[in-house]
Design a protein that fits this description.
Blueprint: H1 2-20, E1 24-28, E2 34-37, E3 45-48, H2 83-115, H3 129-159
Antiparallel strand pairs: 1-2, 1-3
Length: 161
């Protein structure tokens, strides 16, 4: 079974290459309609010169190196920051992320309150039930987006040193 599959696979590949490399003819009939064919048997057909197929070989597979990868080094003129300055920057970054998290949690609480478990109050311009359903769906999407933002902020804060 495996040999038959391998043989058919090889035959298909060879046949595909042969077909792709065949000649192409442009045929024009009496009404002036153009048609491309792979045979030029009929009258009014001319062989078309096409550029060859370009193939790029697949890169050779290299086994994973056992040695640890080299640590990226900075250029000699790259500005350095002392430890105290970096700690201050990290502290500022953490505070900014915490502030963003609190704001997003407050926004989520307001969205959930307005959403009212999927039954928000109808507005005066929502006499059509479809408009109401559209607004409810948008509110649900906003709640889900806000929850994802909070999760991302928590992950980012957790990644800080």
């Amino acid at each position: 079974m495996k040999r038959q599959f391998a043989a058919s696979l090889i035959f298909t590949a060879v046949a595909g290459c042969a077909y792709a490399a065949s000649d192409v003819y442009l045929c024009v009939d009496k009404q002036g309609r153009k048609e491309y064919r792979n045979t030029g048997i009929t009258k009014g057909c001319k062989k078309v010169a096409l550029p060859g197929l370009t193939t790029v070989p697949m890169p050779a597979h290299r086994p994973a190196q056992a040695a640890a990868p080299k640590k990226a080094s900075s250029p000699a003129n790259f500005p350095k920051v002392d430890g105290a300055t970096q700690k201050s920057r990290d502290s500022d970054r953490k505070q900014i992320l915490l502030d963003e998290q609190r704001a997003e949690e407050q926004k989520l609480a307001n969205l959930k309150k307005e959403y009212n478990n999927g039954e928000p109050e109808r507005q005066g311009n929502e006499k059509n039930y479809a408009k109401y359903q559209e607004r409810v769906g948008k509110m649900k999407e906003d709640i889900e987006r806000s929850e994802k933002n909070i999760e991302a902020l928590k992950r980012e804060i957790g990644n800080l040193k």
